[in-house]
């Protein structure tokens, strides 16, 4: 590398990884990113002061806090607790400068329609995974009385009277289920959401809404019944633990071997994943503190197919691909949720992985060792997967653009280091 380029590279924020033997010890799993973002949006439903605990200190939470602040809501953090004060009058708008950074900001639509009666939310557009439409959110909300118009890149939404109805989702979309639930909680009468998403984060949101005085029954199953109520109240609530963060440390264990405890993790939220990990050679069991996991030899390959919960999460797929890259044998991975979620594969190939992709499929022939290389994180999970791969690579793996990882993981490098990994987040500006 020429000196000038080398200097630029040295100045970049990056994560450096070196293989360093087995992982050992305990790691605290934080609150689920994909739950807390929706709980924050749900605070728009009513005036007053909310406290949300077990909130990870991650970039996406900071952006959602900015989305709320732009509306006139006050958000402050002390330790792992967020205090959210929603005043009586708010500006029900989410600008493009924020929504383009955080797709999940569309979760404000349902609560704004239920709490204020109108909203203007800039459409975030597609991303590295492919198109990310919100047509199902809109169809579901229309069924209970909301009206929509799209102009100037914004969704303009209004609802004079929300009225309970049957909502049959075309697909169990997480975001659509949540938006309809958050609006239906204040509708007149009963809403039945069929083909609802069943993720633990949906059940967590229902728990939050019920704590507020809502009547949501069946969250966690495919049929959710919401009896609308006239009043809701602000609450204190603790976020469910992050099953994808837990899966990330189990993937790291798989490639580095060792024995770890995932404090606060929920085995019951990762049943199919843990069965797949078991096939590959990672043992897991419930532990009084959370989940215990062990891996003592080289991983074995397995076929992997992503599906909505309780199937194998698409968010775990990059981590499983990193594991299969160094497993014994051949694994076939099929992505069923997002069309473009294989971008990081080229980075793994640069590290010596033997992977061929064809449409929604990847064929991975495990190699003995990877070789450390400069690679680039393209999204949260892809970035985490590259760090995981670096634990099984000779030499140094340098992951640039680690801000993607910071979007969803609190102190990822620090937590891995505490388990004995040689991982360092270099922040030259600090
Ligand atoms: N879809 C539509 N129309 C819609 C909504 C979704 O066609 O109106 C399609 C999507 O394009 C996609 C599929 O349905 O192909 C699944 O999308 P879903 O709505 O279930 O996902 P999401 O709510 O946008 C959440 C998580 C994602 C996770 C997916 C699937 C949050 C903030 N995000 O997204 O998490 O991959 O569910 O489980 O909750 C991550 O954490 O890195 C992440 C991307």
Name the CATH architecture of the largest domain: Alpha-beta prism
CATH class of the largest domain: Alpha Beta
Strand content: 25-35%
Q: pLDDT under 50 segments (min length 5)? A: none
Name the structural class. Answer: alpha/beta
The strand count comes to 26
CATH superfamily of the largest domain: Enolpyruvate transferase domain
Characterize the biggest β-sheet.
Answer: 4 strands, mixed
How many alpha or pi helices? 15
Q: What is the first-to-last residue Cα distance?
A: 25 Å
Q: Taking strands numbered 1, 2, ... along the chain, how are they ordered across the largest sheet?
A: 23-25-1-26
Q: Tell me which ligands are bound.
A: uridine-diphosphate-2(N-acetylglucosaminyl) butyric acid
Morphology call: globular
Query: Overall pLDDT, averaged?
Result: 95
Share of helix, binned: 25-40%
Structural description of this entry:
This protein is an alpha/beta fold. It is built from 15 helices and 26 strands. The chain folds into 2 domains: 214 residues, Alpha-beta prism (UDP-n-acetylglucosamine1-carboxyvinyl-transferase, Chain), CATH 3.65.10.10; 206 residues, Enolpyruvate transferase domain (UDP-n-acetylglucosamine1-carboxyvinyl-transferase, Chain), CATH 3.65.10. A 4-stranded mixed sheet has the order 23-25-1-26. Strand 10, helix 7 and strand 11 form a beta-alpha-beta unit. It is globular and about 60 Å long. The chain starts with a helix and ends with a strand. Uridine-diphosphate-2(N-acetylglucosaminyl) butyric acid binds next to helix 2, helix 6, helix 7 and helix 13.
């Amino acid at each position: 590398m020429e000196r000038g380029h080398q200097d630029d590279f040295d100045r970049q924020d990056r994560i450096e990884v070196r293989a360093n033997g087995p992982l050992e010890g305990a790691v605290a799993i934080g609150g689920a990113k994909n739950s807390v973002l929706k709980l924050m949006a749900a605070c728009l439903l009513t005036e007053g002061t909310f406290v949300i605990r077990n909130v990870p200190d991650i970039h996406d939470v900071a952006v959602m806090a900015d989305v709320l602040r732009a509306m006139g809501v006050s958000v402050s953090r002390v330790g792992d607790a967020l205090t959210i004060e929603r005043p009586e009058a708010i500006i029900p708008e989410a600008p493009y400068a924020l929504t383009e950074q955080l797709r999940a900001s569309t979760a404000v639509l349902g609560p704004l329609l239920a709490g204020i009666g109108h909203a203007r939310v800039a459409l975030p557009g597609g991303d590295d995974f492919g198109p990310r439409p919100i047509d199902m959110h809109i169809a579901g909300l229309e069924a209970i009385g909301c009206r929509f118009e799209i102009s100037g890149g914004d969704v303009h939404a209004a609802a004079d009277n929300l009225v309970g109805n049957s909502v049959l989702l075309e697909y169990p979309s997480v975001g659509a289920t949540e938006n309809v639930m958050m609006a239906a909680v204040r509708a007149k009468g009963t809403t039945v959401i069929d083909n609802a998403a069943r993720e633990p984060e949906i059940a967590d949101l229902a728990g939050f809404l019920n704590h507020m005085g809502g009547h949501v029954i069946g969250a966690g199953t495919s049929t959710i019944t919401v009896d609308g109520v006239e009043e809701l109240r602000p609450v204190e609530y603790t976020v469910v633990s992050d099953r994808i963060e837990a899966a990330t440390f189990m993937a790291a264990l798989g490639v580095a071997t060792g024995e770890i405890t995932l404090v606060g993790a929920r085995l019951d939220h990762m049943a199919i994943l843990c069965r797949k990990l078991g096939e590959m050679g990672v043992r897991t069991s419930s532990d009084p503190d959370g989940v215990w996991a062990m891996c003592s030899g080289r991983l074995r390959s397995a076929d992997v197919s992503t599906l909505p919960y309780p199937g194998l999460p698409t968010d775990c797929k990059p981590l499983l691909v990193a594991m299969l890259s160094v497993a014994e044998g051949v694994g076939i991975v099929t992505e069923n949720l997002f069309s473009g979620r294989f971008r990081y594969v080229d980075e793994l190939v640069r590290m010596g992985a033997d992977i061929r992709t064809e449409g929604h499929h990847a064929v991975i022939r495990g190699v003995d060792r990877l070789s450390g290389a400069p690679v680039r994180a393209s999204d949260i999970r892809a970035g985490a997967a590259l760090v995981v791969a670096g634990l099984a690579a000779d030499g140094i793996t340098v992951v640039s653009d680690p801000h993607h990882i910071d979007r969803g993981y609190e102190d990822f490098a620090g937590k891995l280091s505490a388990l004995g990994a040689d991982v360092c987040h270099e922040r030259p500006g600090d």
